[in-house]
Amino acid sequence: MALYSEKVMDHFRNPRNVGVIENADGVGEVGNAKCGDIMKMYLKIKDEVIEDVKFETFGCGSAIASSSMATEMIKGKPVAEAMKLTNKAVAEALDGLPDYKMHCSVLAEEAIKAALKDYYDKNGIAYDESAFPDCESCGHCQI
Ligand code: FES
């Protein structure tokens, strides 16, 4: 069996939603201290709906494929739904990732959550802190 699914290869070769959104309503940047990969997400939000999303990823093919798939999964969706996106759902939508590459999909989930948190903070919207695990305590997403 090939190491990477067709979908991973497709999203790696032709990533969707690459770029920057000027004046984004939410921006999130996360990194994995171990592999050194960095992901940045930009959200345009109107009436609690994600109108547009773009990303920049400096990292491995799985990280690029994961960010691309994750942006497709939240585009046009309500903010509350985007909050529920898990790295598992991203990996499943890609028809799987090798075990040792699962952390790449974690980066995509964290980048989206960081951008949503930024949106909440900028707009003074109250949120459940427990939905955003403290980075310092997990050590996973330190840049
Ligand atoms: Fe670091 Fe993929 S190897 S995110």
Order of helices and strands: HEEEHHHHH
Would you give the CATH topology?
Sufe protein. Chain: A
Q: Which CATH class is shown?
A: Alpha Beta
Taken together, the total number of domains comes to 1
Arithmetic mean pLDDT: 92
Tell me how many strands there are: 3
From the alpha carbons, calculate the radius of gyration and give it in angstroms.
Answer: 14 Å
Distance between the termini: 34 Å
Number of helices: 6
Globular, elongated, flat, extended or rod-shaped: what is the shape?
globular
DSSP strand (E) fraction? 15-25%
Task: Give the spatial strand order of the biggest sheet.
Answer: 1-2-3
Major β-sheet annotation: 3 strands, antiparallel
Low-confidence regions: none
| Bound chemical compounds | FE2/S2 (inorganic) cluster
Looking at the overall shape, the CATH architecture is: Alpha-Beta Complex
Helix content: 40-55%
What structural class is derived from the secondary structure elements? Answer: alpha+beta
Please summarize what this structure is.
Helices cover 41% and strands 17% of the residues. The chain has 143 residues and is of the alpha+beta class.
Record the SSE blueprint:
Blueprint: H1 6-13, E1 26-31, E2 38-46, E3 49-58, H2 61-74, H3 79-83, H4 87-93, H5 102-122, H6 135-138
Antiparallel strand pairs: 1-2, 2-3
Helix pairs in contact: 1-2, 2-4, 2-5, 4-5
Bound molecules: FE2/S2 (inorganic) cluster.
FE2/S2 (inorganic) cluster is lined by residues 32, 35, 37, 59-60, 62-63, 103-104, 107.
Written description of the protein model:
The protein is an alpha+beta fold and 143 residues long. Helix content is 41%, strand content 17%. It is built from 6 helices and 3 strands, in the order H-E-E-E-H-H-H-H-H. It has helices spanning 6-13, 61-74, 79-83, 87-93, 102-122, 135-138; strands at 26-31, 38-46, 49-58. The longest helix has 21 residues, at 102-122. The termini are far apart. Bound molecules: FE2/S2 (inorganic) cluster (FES). Residues 32, 35, 37, 59-60, 62-63, 103-104, 107 line the site of FE2/S2 (inorganic) cluster.
